[in-house]
Amino acid sequence: MREFKTDTIPLPRSDVKAPQELFDLEIGCGAGLHPILYSKSNPTRTLVAIERTREKYDKFLGRFNRHGSPTSIIPVHDDAIHWVTHRVAPESINHVFILYPNPEPSNKNQRFAHMPFMAFLVTRLINSGKIELATNIESYANECLEHFPKYGLRLVDQASPTKPGRTHFERKYLDRDEKCFNLTFQKI
Ligand SMILES: C[S@@+](CC[C@H](N)C(=O)[O-])C[C@H]1O[C@@H](n2cnc3c(N)ncnc32)[C@H](O)[C@@H]1O
Q1: How many structural domains is the chain composed of?
Q2: 70-115: per-residue pLDDT in tens?
Q3: Residue 10 placed within a domain
Q4: Is 102 within a domain?
Q5: Ligand 1: distance of its center to the CA of 31 in Å?
Q6: Is the peptide bond before 19 cis (omega within 30 degrees of 0)?
Q7: Which domain holds residue 99?
Q8: What tens digit of pLDDT does each residue of 36-59 get?
Q9: CATH number reported for the structural domain that contains residue 110 in this entry
Q10: What does the alpha-carbon distance between residue 25 and residue 73 come to, in Å, rounded to a whole number?
Q11: pTM of the full predicted structure?
């Protein structure tokens, strides 16, 4: 396993600090449908929702504002790896969502199963905290099933998302009748 060297990771652009209380984290929330749906069904949980791309983040912010700027959502425009590395204390995250990450077919090191960052992310989870990853690519799901256990995670749930879907990408795939995979791992 390649070592994750925190001192090589750029500082976050965003000034947003991590919450003082335990929180949930969404990496790559895109246009932000899932954060809004999640806050409606989990109004007492704090979700830090991070999106790196300006255009997507602006759409997320528009949606967030139209829904009354729920205080349970903390929007962050940044690279999640930079923000988590420098802003998050050990054992302070309950649940991580990684929903439809970029497939990166020709860049293995950018796929979550192979990222040294995964080992660091697990140190930020509380004991028994969870990482939930969804994808429409079976080989991507299989890589996670194979490699996540070496980061101290065990599979606790494996489901096929159903319509209407929680994110824009999930809705697109389910509307095309593509199979999606939702894997939930727990920190051992
Ligand atoms: C395929 S899209 C999925 C978006 C959304 N989760 C959905 O399912 O509709 C992946 C998103 O992750 C974002 N992303 C990729 N790497 C990221 C990172 N390191 N930090 C923050 N966002 C990231 C991309 O900008 C993109 O918006």
Answers
A1: 1
A2: 999 999 999 999 999 999 999 999 999 999 999 999 999 999 999 9
A3: no
A4: yes
A5: 9
A6: no
A7: 21-131+139-160+167-187
A8: 999 999 999 999 999 999 999 999
A9: 3.40.50.150
A10: 10
A11: 0.98
